[in-house]
Structures are given as C-alpha cells and as structure tokens.
Write a structure and sequence with these properties.
six-stranded mixed β-sheet, Rossmann fold, disordered N terminus, alpha/beta, 18 helices, 4 domains
Length: 504
C-alpha cells in the first residue's frame, strides 16, 4: 500500500505540473476525471505488483503431515502410535482417496524420545528435506516449544495437541502455531476450582521436573491462591522415576488437604498406585489425591479401585455423546483401546487443517492458518471451537469424576461427567495475555498486576478491605472497558485473579 501511495503522489505532482502549462479550461470537469482515472489505474497496478500473492494449488503437488510424538517414553500410551492412527482416520474421513485439491496426502511419523534436540533436529530435517508442511502431536512441552519456533522460522505450521504448557500461546506464541486441546491453565482451573468449592483449601504439589510439570504447578498455584487457598509446599521428581515413596512421604507429612500431581503418563499412573499403597485418600487419611492431568489410558491402567473418586479435567471423553462414541469405536477397532484426549486432538487438528487447505485453495502456511482461524472447528471431537489470534483453540472442557467399581458397567466406562466448563472460562483470558500477537487490551495492565500483588496480604475477612479492593479494581475495570476497543474482557477469570471471595 505504501507503494500505491507513492505512485499516486508522483502522478498527482506530475499532473499539477502539466496543468500549470495548460490553459485554464484544461481544468474543466470534462477533462479532470479522465486524468485521475488513468492515475488511479496506474497506482492500482503498481500496488498489485507490490502485495504478496499466495499461489493457488499445492507448492510441491503433495500435502505432507508429520506426527512427531512419544513412542518410547512415559506418554507413549497416551499419544505415540495412537496419534498416528488418529491422523490416519482424519485423512480418511476428509477424503476416501486421501487427496486434497487433487493431490495426495502423505503421513510420516517419528519418536522425539522426549528430548528437545531430537525433536528440533527431526523438525528441521522434515521441513528442509522431507517436504513436510505441518507437524502435529509434539508430546512434551520442551519439544513443542522448540518445534513451534522452527516452524515459524521456516514458514510452516505446528499444531500442538500433546504438549500442555500455556506458554505455547502466551509468552512464546507465534503466527504459525495452534494449541489444540488443552493447556496447563485449563487443567488447573477446572480441578482446583472444583476442590476449592468443596472447602479444600490447602495444597501440596508433586511435580515432574520438566517444562510441563513446572507450568502446571505454576498455573495450579495461581488458581488455588485466587480461591483464597494455601500452598504448603511442593517437591519435584525426575521424569520416568519408578519409586515415588520419598515424594509421597513428604506430601503426606505436609498435612495438606489436597495432594496435586503435576506430572503425566506413566509417572502419574505409578504415583497414584503407590499413593494408594500409602493409604493416601482412603480410610482415616482424609488427604485428597488428585492428578491435574490424567488420561483415560492411565486411569484404566490404575484400575477403578485405585482411581475411584478422583476429579479430572479433560477436553474429550469417548462416551460423551453419540458422535464421540462413533469416532472412538472406529479408533478402538485399530488400537484395541479408547482414544485419549491427546489422540482425539490429533484427529481434530489434522481434519481441520485439511479442510482449511481445501477452502484456501493452497497449502501456503499463512493462507491456511488464516482460513483455520476464520472457520469454526466442528467435528466428532471438538464442537464450536474457535482459534483465537494467539493460536489458542477455545472450546468447552469437562470436569469428570472417576467411577467406583460398582458404578462401572462395561470396559472403559470410567467417568461421570460432573460439569461442562465453557471455553471462555476454561482457558486463560486474552485480557492478561502476554502473547505478542495480541493487542494490549488494558492500558493499565501493569498497574493492575501490581495492585493484585499488593492486595494479597490483606485479610479478605475484613469488609473494609473488601470494599477498598473492590473500588480499586472497579476503577481498573472502568479504564479497561474504555480502552478495549469495544470488547469487554472483564470476565470471571480476570475477576478471579483478585479473589472471587470479595463479592463485588
């Protein structure tokens, strides 16, 4: 557009110069429009040559999708070959001939082994020499954070379905990444709120010592404190450790009402089994034991005797409705188990990606991303999903409770759905986003955060303090509404940051 403007100015100047040499009648209405039509046409043509144009069709006559997953580590059962099977189902459901825009769809996969450098090297190789257009799954946040940057640098796409760190669409967001199913904020807010509502206010965390564990504990701490709860301590354990006894003993000795697990996969399974051996959550020991992330394969592996009563936040359950059951039965035929929410997310992400290519008429990464964001996500896994500008897919989540053995009537009948959590409540608000792609909605955002920090020492039991804080926050809210370009981001999540107990 700048070039168009330059051209218009140049022609305008030239026209004025010529006009000075002409008789006065040359400025008559009968002559002037013709000159400006010519000028406008020239400027438009110049502008068209300057603007980027997305070539129609496929760049190399094939769409190649890479599933980069954990096939040998603690999450192999939750993603792994099951994620590859889910991607295959998505391709088949998109087109029986496995083609898009008349060209073949190819699928490749590899094991990143949970190591950042392996995942990064595979991503570079796939993008540079294998012709891969999009990488999905990306189990483990350390791998996902590395690969999403590589995808952005190389003009490709990363659809993260396996990793959970909220940083993926927050501090480290980019224009080439979508975070599909869940994140640490959604997991923490669903479970922590539910237990806080039961009057359980003191927590102790057992966390895996890597990016996901740290992010999950951080988000859960924030939610607990926002609910006027207290964190009595935490301990970190290496990924893949078999003996959890020392960590469980520390948690037990803390006397916390809730022991929250911020780990995943086989680590979660082992921790729950060993916790029951310690008697945690049973008998005279009233400590509640809850994993902040637990997938259906893990719960099935724990056995209902061990897992019964636990609250879990999830984005997918195979027995939710007829659509989920139909998809899950087809998946079961291939894998002999029900899909986890990670595996179901791969299906949804791949299917939406292919639909976007068809609609865009090209495999150009940013053209496809624009179409993905402009189109609602609707399939057997995700309903009425919307991809935000920060790359976060917003959709409803669920709070479920693990059934007792007596309540379960058949294999994989594991959950009771206790609550559907609307997407705008489940995921972090854009109002406090630190994503560079998001226009700042709060002029006084830093002041708001400072105020929140300042308010925490106050006793919330004091009505004077509640009124003082309420008035202060309402002033920020007034400014926020005025500066938000007509968009009201003052939602329940933002309010929760300053304490839902204030009642203003």
């Amino acid at each position: 557009m700048y070039l168009v403007w330059q051209t218009m100015c140049a022609i305008s100047t030239s026209t004025r110069g010529d006009a000075d040499k002409l008789p006065s009648h040359s400025h008559s209405p009968s002559l002037q429009p013709s000159r400006w039509r010519t000028a406008l046409l020239a400027a438009s043509l110049a502008g068209l040559t300057a603007l980027p144009v997305h070539a129609a069709g496929l760049s190399d006559n094939v769409v190649k999708i890479g599933v980069l997953t954990d096939m040998s580590g603690v999450s192999a059962d939750n993603s792994g070959r099951g994620s590859v099977a889910a991607a295959e189902l998505a391709i088949e459901d998109f087109a029986k001939d496995k083609k898009v825009l008349g060209q073949p769809i190819e699928l490749i996969s590899a094991d990143h082994q949970g190591k950042t450098y392996i995942g990064a090297n595979l991503a570079r190789e796939w993008f540079d020499t294998k012709g891969v257009d999009m990488i999905t799954d990306l189990t483990f946040s350390n791998v996902a954070l590395a690969v999403q940057k590589i995808a952005d640098d190389k003009g490709k796409l990363a659809l993260v379905t396996g990793a959970g760190s909220a940083a993926i669409t927050n501090e480290q967001c980019n224009k080439s990444t979508v975070h599909w199913m869940y994140d640490t904020y959604a997991l923490a807010t669903g479970t922590a709120r539910a237990l806080s509502a039961q009057g359980l206010k003191s927590w102790y965390f057992i966390s895996a010592d890597y990016a996901f564990g740290a992010a999950l504990e951080k988000d859960a701490r924030a939610i607990v404190q926002a609910q006027c709860g207290q964190v009595l301590g935490s301990v970190k354990h290496p990924v893949g450790v078999s003996d959890m006894s020392s960590y469980l003993l520390q948690a037990q000795n803390s006397k916390a009402q809730v022991i929250g697990l911020a780990n995943s996969g086989a680590d979660t399974l082992n921790t729950v089994k060993q916790a029951r051996e310690f008697g945690l959550g049973t008998g005279a020991n009233k400590q509640v034991f809850t994993p902040l992330l637990a997938l259906i394969t893990e719960v099935n592996g724990m056995g209902l005797q061990n897992a019964q009563g636990m609250f879990i936040t999830t984005g997918f359950y195979w027995d939710q409705d007829e659509q989920t059951r139909a998809f899950s039965r087809r998946y079961f035929e291939r894998m002999k188990k029900m899909p986890t929410m990670m595996q179901a997310a791969v299906y949804s992400a791949v299917l939406h990606y292919l639909k976007a290519i068809k609609a865009a008429g090209t495999d150009d990464a940013q053209a496809v991303m624009a179409k993905m964001k402009a189109t609602e996500v609707n399939d057997a896994v995700v309903r009425k999903g919307k991809i935000r500008d920060d790359g976060r897919l917003v959709h409803d989540m669920m709070l479920v409770q693990v059934k007792t053995p007596a309540e379960s009537t058949r294999a994989w009948d594991l959950y009771k759905i206790k609550q559907v959590i609307p997407g705008d409540q489940a995921f972090h608000s854009l109002a406090l986003s630190r994503c560079s792609l998001i226009k700042k909605r709060y002029r006084n955002d830093s002041c708001l955060r400072l105020s929140i920090k300042r308010w925490r020492p106050f006793s919330l039991e004091s009505s004077n303090h509640r009124r003082r804080i309420g008035r202060h926050f309402q002033e920020h809210a007034r400014l926020a509404r005025r500066d938000a370009d007509g968009v009201a981001f003052l939602d329940a999540q933002t309010t929760e940051l300053v304490g839902r107990q204030m009642r203003f």
